[in-house]
Predict the 3D structure of the following.
Amino acid sequence: MLRDSLKTKEFFDRWISYNLETMRRKQDRLESGGIPLPYGKVTASADLRNKALEAAIMSYSRGDGVGELRDHAVTLLEKHEQLRSMCDALPPDEQEKRIQYERLSFDNYLDFLWWLSLAVCLGMDGAHLGRVLALIGNAGHDALLDRIAVKLGDRQRAVSSGLVFPKQYALLLQALDAPSPEQPGLIRKFLDGWYKGNRNVAAWYDSHKGEDTGYVGYWSLEAALVVKAFGIDDSSFRRHANYPADLVHDA
């Protein structure tokens, strides 16, 4: 059953199909040598990674079941590993170009948390999660990401004391250290400010207003990640419009 309240099933059918077909054609070009330059292979791989994430979230919005979503999680890992391989293959004088795909810019940070959320909430195994965390990297750079990684098994990870994006994520970090009875209230407060808090920083903000704007659904997958990983009671905000409850409870 459709989970999104702003677009139709037909909208998601169309754009998921478009993403998957575009991915298929681009992957064919990569594998056939149709993209010869090393950095061209990097940009193509980055686009494949992005479209795989978009397709996964749109599939959740459309109402797809857990089995199909797990297939998307497998594809996401494959595309991230392909991007890393293509970055590693860049000649020495082009290695700096990889930074834009690996550093904690706002877009990357959000994509990393969403990717990790899908892997955790869909119950991917420890080996899968270990590969995800290794690809995300950035140990010791952001307290929220570091704390989540440690919780998921990266025990040797350096843990930062600060946030890269405190305006957006201070409440979520506070929830990790709050007494159990206070955690749901902090996450509810985070969710209440989540959409407006991404104004002027997230590329997806207000994307529902068009038919060709990359809309995937307004889901705070990072809230779901924290709830699932830390076992927080979500009964008081489970019906929040931006909380992907089915991802937490049906997977």
